[in-house]
Amino acid sequence: MTSTTSGPEGSGPTELTGLTASELAAKIAAGEVSAVEVTRAHLDRLEALEPAVHAFLHVDREAALAAASRADEERADGTPPSPLAGVPLALKDVLTTTDMPTTCGSRMLEGWTPPYDSTVAARLRAAGVVILGKTNMDEFAMGSSTENSAFGPTRNPWDTDRVPGGSGGGSSAALAAFEAPLAIGTDTGGSIRQPAAVTGTVGVKPTYGGVSRYGLVAFSSSLDQAGPCGRTVLDTAMLHEVIAGHDPMDSTSVDAPVPKVTAAAREGATGDLRGVRVGVVREFGGEGYQQGVRDSFRAAVDTLTSLGAEVVEVSCPHFEYALGAYYLIAPSECSSNLARFDAMRYGLRVGDDGTRSTEEVMSLTREQGFGPEVKRRIMLGTYALSSGYYDAYYGQAQKVRTLITRDFEAAFAQVDVLVSPTTPTTAFRIGERVDDPMAMYLADLCTIPSNLAGNAAMSVPSGLSAEDGMPVGLQIMAPPMADDRLYRVGAAYEAARDAASEVPLLDRVPRLEVA
Amino acid sequence: MTAVAEIMDYDEVLRRFDPVLGLEVHVELSTATKMFCGCANEFGAEPNSRVCPVCLGMPGALPVVNGTAVESAVRIGLALDCQVAEWCRFARKNYFYPDMPKNFQTSQYDEPIVFDGGLDVVLDDGEVFRVGIERAHMEEDTGKSLHVGGATGRIHGAEHSLLDYNRAGVPLIEIVTKPITGAGERAPEVARAYVTALRDLLRSMGVSDVRMDQGSLRCDANVSLSPKGSGEFGTRTETKNVNSFRSIERAVRFEMRRQASLLVNGSEIIQETRHFDESSGETSSGRRKEEAEDYRYFPEPDLVPIAPSREWVERLRGTLPEMPWERRKRVQEQWGLSDEELRDLVNASALDLVAATVDAGAPPSEARSWWVAYLSQRANERGVELAELSVTPAQVARVIELVAEGKLTHKLARQVVDGVLDDRGDPDEVVAADGIEVVSDDSSLQAAVDEALAAQPDAAEKIRGGKVQAAGAIVGAVMKATQGQADAKRVRELVLAACGQQ
Ligand SMILES: [Zn+2]
C-alpha cells in the first residue's frame, strides 16, 4: 500500500499542526491562539490521517478539548501550570490513565480502564498538557516494529509500507505525521530511540530512575524507562522537565534534582561544542550496518567535529554481549511481571463457563490473551530462571550487565558523551521480519547497552539514507543523571543539520492522503 | 502412600531413631500499614475494603517498602541474637495462585535481613534448650480464598470461589530454625516450648498480635528421623499450619511415630506437605513436594537493596524491651519465687497477667495464686488460653482487695470471679447484684455458733478442755450453715470465746 503523495492536495501540516511544541506553547502563552484551537487542529488532522497511519489505539476528543479548555482558563487567570500548558500530546498505551483504557497493545487488557493514573500521566495533567489519546505499541512493549500489537500495525508516515519502529511506533508515527507535537514513549531496549530514528523524530531514554515508572505497565522492571519524544530537541527537553523527577511511589526513582535539560538544549542550539569530548563507539557502525546508516553516521560525526567537539574513538568491548544478556534479563523479568494477567481481577477472562477449574480458566486466558512474541518471551524467561539454569543464564547475564556498565564507566572517564548509529538499518518493510525474531531483535543492537547500564541516551535525526530516502538516527549516550549533555550535543547537531540543508528534515515528510 | 497399619509406640520410636526438627514460623507484623503500600493492616475488615492498586497487583503499580516493617524485622533479629545483614534484597517467589495478586510473592531468598541466632527455650521442668535460628526474612502475606458450595470449604467440589485481598500484602516475618537435633524424647515438647517462647518474645516486643487463632502466628513443622546414632538426616515432611501450641507438640509426636512405623517396615518417607487434623491428632498427606513448583526466585527489580547502617542497628538494639528471660529473672527476685514457683507461673502463661495484677495493686503471692491455681483451672475447663478469660488483671486485683478488706471470704471471692467470668460485670457489680456480703454481724453469727456447739457436744467439750484444734469442726459447720458468707476468722473467735478459751 502506498498512500503518500507529494501533491498540494495531500495533507501537509496546517499552520498550527506544523509548529513545534515550543512554538505552540509560546503562542498559547501569548494568547495568540487558544489551547482549544491547537487541540482541535491536531484532532482534526489525526482523525483524517489515522486510517493511513494507525498511530492511536484510543482518542478521546471530548476529554482532550475539555483539558485544553481548562488550560485556556488557567492562562486567562494568569496561572498557567507549566511552559507546555495547552500543548497536545500522544501517550503510549502502556501508561495507566483513569479516563482512557490502557491496553498495552494486548487483547489481555482490551477495554481495561485502570483505577489510577500513572505518575507520568498525572504530571502531564498537572502541567496542563493535553492528552489526545493513547498510542499503539507492540504488545506489552515487546517488539521493534509495532507489528506485535493485537490491534494492527502502525505505519511509518515516511512510507506507509514500512514500520515506524517499536515498541513505541504509535508515538513516533504520531509525531512524524504531525498528529501530535509531543509524545511519551517507554524504552526497555530501545523502544523510544529506535522508533525515533526510523521516523525522523527525537526520542530520549532518560537515566534509569529519572522518570517514575509508577503506572508504567512493566515489561522488564530493571530496564523499563519512560521518556519524552518530540520533533525537536528543545521540545523534547521541555517535555522531559515536565515528567522527570523523584516519585516516592517508585522505589527505583532517583532522588536528585532533574538535570537542566531545557537550558542545555538552548545552550546547544548556539552551535558551540568546544570543550565537549565525544567518543565514537568502535564496536558499532561497521559491518552489517546499512550503507546509508554508516554514511549518515560518519557525516554526523564530522558535523560534531566542525562544531568544535573533540572526537575520539573509544572501545566498549562487552557491548557485543549486550543483546544476548538483554534477551535473558528482559524475558526473565517479563515472565514474572506478566504472571499477574490470570483472568482473576481484571482484563480478559476466557472459558469461565462453570465447567472449568480456576487453573483451566487462567491457562486458557493466557493462551488466547497473549500474542506469539509475548509467549515466546515468557517461555524464554521461565526457562532462564528455572532451577538448575539460573546461574548459567540469568546469573551470567547479570555479570555481562556489570561488565557493560564498567565499559560505560571507563568510556565516560575519557569522554563526555558517546555516539553511535541508533539502529543498524532504516525502517524495514511491514512483514519483512515478523517470521524472523532474531532479525527483529537486531534492530535494538545499539540501544540495548544503555538500558542494561541505566545511563541516558537520545536518538536525534541525522538525515535520510541515500538508498531508500528513509530517516536515520544518531544515538547520543551520557552518564547517569547527565541527561543534560544529550540535549546540549543533540541541539547543537540538530541546528547544524538544519542549517546545512535546504529544507528542514521534517518538512520532507511525505504528505499523507486524507481519509 | 500405604496406610500405616500399626503405628509405633513412642518409646519404641526413640529406641530406634533420633528426631530432627525444623520449625518455620510466620508472624504477621502489627504495623499500621501493609508491607508495600499504604493500606491499613487490619484483621477482620469488610472483604476487599483494605486494598489499592499496589496490593491488588494492578498493572503498573509498584511496591514501596514499609520502613516500620524493616525496623521490626531487625529488632526481631536482634532479640533472637541474630546477625543483621549489611546489605540484602527482596526476591520474587514465582508461582500461580489466585489469592496472590501478582502471581509472585515478594519475599527474601538467599539474602535474609537477619541470620544465625538462637533462642533459649525453657522446658516444663525448667531445663533450658537452645534452638538455633537459621534466618528470619521479610515477605508479604497472600489474600484469602473462600470456596463456596463444596462440602468442606475446600476448593474441590466448590461451585465458585470468593477472594478477599485484605490480607494480601500484610507484612510477614518468617523465622526459620536451624535443624533441631539432640532433643530426643523431648522433641515435641521443644517444638511447643519454642513456639510459645517465640510468641512471648514477640508479644513483649509489641511487633505482632501473635494470635495463632487469627493466623497472625503460624507454624509449619518439618520432621525427619535419623537412625539412632547414624547422624544421617532422613527424608522430611512438612506439617502445615498447626493451629495451637498443643497441636504443634501433638503433630510432631504423631509424625515421629508415623515415620518410624514406615521406616521399620522398609517403606520410604515421601517428601511432602502434610496437614494436621486437630480432632484425630493425625497428619495426612497434602501436596507432594516433588510436584511442587520451581519458584524461579530472582532479585526483585522493583525494590532497591536494604543496607541497615550499623549505627541504626545499634540504636534499635537500644530500643529492645526487657527480654522475657531477663524479666523472668527479675520477677523471680522481686517476688521472691522459688525456681519451681517461677516455672509454674511461666508454664501457666501467667507471668504477664500476674505482673499486671501486681501493677494494679495486688500482692504478688495472692495474684500468683489466683492466676496459676484458680483461673488456670477455669481456663482449662473452658478450653481457652488463660489470657483469653474474660477477667482482667485489674478485676482480679479488686477481688483481692475486697478479701483483704474483709468484705469477701476466699470462697465468696471465687464466686465473684466466676460472675466476672460469666460476663456479669465488674467484681463490685457482681457483689451488688448477688447480694454477696460477709456475715460479720456477731448476733446472727452467735446464734449459728451456739447451734453448732449444741449439735456437736463432743467437739464442744474438747474445746472447753483446751483442745482448740477441735474448733475447726464447729467453724466448718457454721460456715456451712451460713452458706460460706461468714467470715471464718470471726466465727473461730466466737467459737473459742463461747468455750471459754479467750
Ligand atoms: Zn494496598
UniProtKB/TrEMBL annotation, chain A:
Top-tier EC class: ligase
GO CC annotation terms, alphabetical: glutamyl-tRNA(Gln) amidotransferase complex
PROSITE patterns per record: AMIDASES
Domain Amidase: 37-486
Keyword Ligase recorded: yes
Assembly and interaction partners: Heterotrimer of A, B and C subunits.
Name of the protein: Glutamyl-tRNA(Gln) amidotransferase subunit A
From TrEMBL, chain B:
E.C. number: 6.3.5.-
Biological process (GO), any one: glutaminyl-tRNAGln biosynthesis via transamidation
Coiled-coil positions: none
Keywords, comma-separated and alphabetical: ATP-binding, Ligase, Nucleotide-binding, Protein biosynthesis, Transferase
Residue ranges annotated for the Asn/Gln amidotransferase domain, each copy included: 352-499
SUPFAM superfamilies, A to Z: GatB/YqeY motif, Glutamine synthetase/guanido kinase
Gene Ontology MF terms: asparaginyl-tRNA synthase (glutamine-hydrolyzing) activity; ATP binding; glutaminyl-tRNA synthase (glutamine-hydrolyzing) activity; transferase activity
UniProt-listed InterPro entries: Asn/Gln-tRNA_amidoTrfase_suB/E, Asn/Gln-tRNA_Trfase_suB/E_cat, Asn/Gln_amidotransferase, Asn/Gln_tRNA_amidoTrase-B-like, GatB, GatB_Yqey_C_2, Gln-tRNA_amidoTrfase_suB_CS, Gln_synth/guanido_kin_cat_dom
Catalytic reaction(s) noted: L-aspartyl-tRNA(Asn) + L-glutamine + ATP + H2O = L-asparaginyl-tRNA(Asn) + L-glutamate + ADP + phosphate + 2 H(+); L-glutamyl-tRNA(Gln) + L-glutamine + ATP + H2O = L-glutaminyl-tRNA(Gln) + L-glutamate + ADP + phosphate + H(+)
Highest taxon of the lineage: Bacteria
Gene3D superfamilies to which the protein is assigned, alphabetical: 1.10.10.410
Pfam families given in the database record: GatB_N, GatB_Yqey
Catalytic class of the enzyme: ligase
Subunit composition and interactions: Heterotrimer of A, B and C subunits.
Similarity field: Belongs to the GatB/GatE family. GatB subfamily.
NCBIfam families: gatB, PRK05477.1-2, PRK05477.1-3, PRK05477.1-4
Function: Allows the formation of correctly charged Asn-tRNA(Asn) or Gln-tRNA(Gln) through the transamidation of misacylated Asp-tRNA(Asn) or Glu-tRNA(Gln) in organisms which lack either or both of asparaginyl-tRNA or glutaminyl-tRNA synthetases. The reaction takes place in the presence of glutamine and ATP through an activated phospho-Asp-tRNA(Asn) or phospho-Glu-tRNA(Gln).
This protein's name: Aspartyl/glutamyl-tRNA(Asn/Gln) amidotransferase subunit B
